[in-house]
Write a structure and sequence with these properties.
420 residues, 4-stranded mixed beta sheet, 19 helices
Amino acid sequence: MELLDEILAKENLNKAYKKVYQNKGASGIDGITVEAVKDYLKEHKDEIIAKIRNRKYKPQPVRRVEIPKENGKKRKLGIPTVVDRVIQQAIVQVLTPIYEEQFSNSSYGFRPNRSCEMAVIKALEIMNGGSDWIVDLDLERFFDTVNQDKLITIVRRTVKDGDVVSLIRKFLSSGVMDNGIVTATKEGMPQGGNLSPLLSNVMLNELDKELEARGLNFVRYADDCMIFVKSEKAASRVLETITSWIERKLGLKVNAEKSKVSKPRGLKFLGFGFWVGKGQYKPKPHLKSIQKFKRKLKQLTKRSWGISLDSRIKQINYLVRGWVNYFRIANMKRVLERIDERLRTQIRVIIWKQWKKIHTRYNALRRLGVTHEIAFNCANTRKGYQQICKTTYIQFAINNDRLRKRGLVFALDQYNKVHI
C-alpha cells in the first residue's frame, strides 16, 4: 500500500479527527470550529480526498496569533483550519512510526512515550557521570527560519511517495493571514500545526546524528539542546564547531548571545534549574518558573475578581496540580511551604471580603468556634485585609483543614503525593 493510501484510509482519518477534536483549539481563517467540523467533513470528505489524490488540494493560510513571552517579546503561532489540522494529523499518524525508528534516544520532544521529565532525568544522569561542562545551544527563531528546501530534501530520503511529499510542501508554503492580509511563507513552518512538531524532529535529527557521530553526550527537547563534556575547553571548542556545522549544513541560525558554555547551576532547562547536594546534581524549579507560578496564582487570587469561591478554587487547583506534577522530580518543599502560606492568606482575604458586613463576619466567626469577644473585635476591626487575615484568630477560624474541606489543594500536599 502506498503511503498516501495509508494516510487517506478511513480508519486513519477517523482517528485523526478524534485526536483533533480531543485537543480542541481555536478555529482557523475559515471560522469552522472543532465542534462544527464533523458535519463539514461528512459533506465534503470525498471531495477533499479526491483533491489530495489529484494533487489539487490547497491548504488554507494559517491564522497568525501572537502570544507574549516572558522576555516581553511575542511568539508567533500559526493556527491552521480545523480541516487542515485533521489532514496534518492523518499524515503524522502514518509517518511517526517510520521516523521513530530513525530518531535518537537522546531526543525527547514531541515523541510518543517521551517527556520533559525523562529529558531532565537523562541530563542529570550525564552530569553526575562527570560530564558537567555544558554547551547550551539556542537556535534563533527555529520554527520561523527553517529552510523549507533543505527540510523537503531530508523528508525525501525517507518518504518515497511523491504525493505525500507534495502535500507536506503545500502545508509548509500555505501562507499566513495576519489582519486580513495573506503573506506567502517561503521559509519556516507554522508553530501551531499538527505536522510541525514531527517535521522539527525530522530536521533536528540531522543534528542528533552529527552529535552521535562525534561521540558526544547530549539531550535534546525540540529545539532546546544541551551537549555535555568534561572540560570548559572542550565545551568551548564544541560550541564553536557545532555552531558552524548547524549554520552551514542546516541553514539555521544559532543565537550567539543566548548560546553559552556553563556549569549546571547556571542553566535553565525545560523550566528546571540544578543545585548540588551531597556531591550530586539535583533538580529544582528554576527561579523564573517559580516566579511565573506565583504570578499566575496572584492573578487567580485577586480579591477584586468577581467570581464564586468554588470556581476560583477549581482554577487554582488545576494550576497547582499541573505545576507540581510537572516538577514532581524536583526538590522544592521549602518553596512550596512559602507559596502555600501566601495562597492560604489570599483565600482568607477573599472569604473575609465576601463576608463584608460586621454582623456577617461576627456570626461566621462564632459558627467557626471563635469566642464572642474575639469575634466582636475582629468583626469591628479597622485593620486591612492582609493584616487581619494573618492574625491567629482568623487562621484559627479559617484553618488549613477547613480550607482543605472546602476543596483547596495545597501545593505541598500535592507534592507529597506525587514526588519521586
